[in-house]
Amino acid sequence: MSQFVPLISSGVAGPLGVLHLPRLWQKASLEASGKLHPDYPGCGKGYDQMVLDGLGLDREEFLAYIKSDKPTYVQLEAGCSPRRGAVSTRLLSKR
Question: Whole-angstrom Cα distance, residue 32 to residue 42?
C-alpha cells in the first residue's frame, strides 16, 4: 500500500479561515485509511492539538469522527461555526 507525505502547509487556511486545519484533516484522514507515511503523526500533540483546543474539539472524538465518517474537507468545515471560532455540535452529531 502506498504511503503519503502530507503536502498541505500549516500556513494554509480553508474557507473558514482556520490555519492548519486543512493539514490536520489531511493527516488524520490519511492515517485513518492507513496511508500516512510513518514519519508523520495523524494528530500530534503540538500544532495539531493547539488547533483542536482552539476549536474546542476533543482529540479522540475528532479522530473517531474522521475515521468513521470519512468527511471531505468541506464537510468538516461545515460543522464549524464562524462565531468565535467555536465548533458546533453538528460536527460530532453523527456519533
Answer: 8
Cα Rg of the chain (Å, integer): 12
Three cell numbers at 33?
A: 485509511
70 Rama class: left (phi>0) / alpha (psi -120 to 50) / beta: left
Total residues belonging to the chain: 95
Q: Distance between CA 55 and CA 6 in Å, rounded?
A: 22
Note the pTM of the prediction, 2 decimals: 0.83
The residue with cell 482556520 is 18
Question: Identity (one letter) of the amino acid at 93?
Answer: S
Mean pLDDT of all residues in the chain? 85
Nearest to 12 by CA among 21, 25, 2, 1: 21
